[in-house]
Design brief:
Layout (H helix, E strand, L loop, with lengths): L32 H11 L10 E7 L5 E9 L9 H10 L4 E7 L9 H15 L4 E8 L4 E3 L7
Parallel strand pairs: 3-4
Antiparallel strand pairs: 1-2, 1-3, 4-5
Amino acid sequence: MGGEEMKQYKGSIPEITLKYKTGEIKKVQIMSSRDAYYFLKELYDQDTIELNETCIALFLNRANNTIGWFKVSQGGINATVVDNKLIIATALKCAASSIILSHNHPSGNAKPGETDKSATNTLKDACSLFDITLLDHIICTSKEYFSFADEGLI
C-alpha cells in the first residue's frame, strides 16, 4: 500500500446524519413493562395493529427516560423483520443506554413463538457488544401484552 495511488470513483459520497423529528408523543420514564406497553401502544397504527406486524425499537437513557423511537419494519400478517444492524446503528447514533424491542401480533395472541425468542436473544447478544442493555421485548396486541423481562426470558 505504500506509495500506491488511491483509486478514484465517479460520483460523490453522501454525508450520513442523524435526524430527530419532533412528534406528538411526550417523553416519559419507563419503570415497568406496563409503562412500556402503554407507551408503545400509542406508537402503533391503531388501524393496522390487528392487520400486519410492525417492529418498533424504543431507545432510553440510563434513567430509563425515553430518547426516541424507531419503526424498524412493517411486515405481513404473521411476520416482520427485526433488523439488528438498523436497531444497533440507531441506538449508537442517539447514545442510548438501553432498548426496548417491540412488535405486535395481529392475531391478538401475545404469546411469543420460537422466532420471537430467537430474535430477542440475537439482539441481546448484539447489544452487549456495545454496552447497551436490551431491557425487554414487548409483544403488543390491541388488548394485552407479553413481556420477555417479566417472564425471565431476557
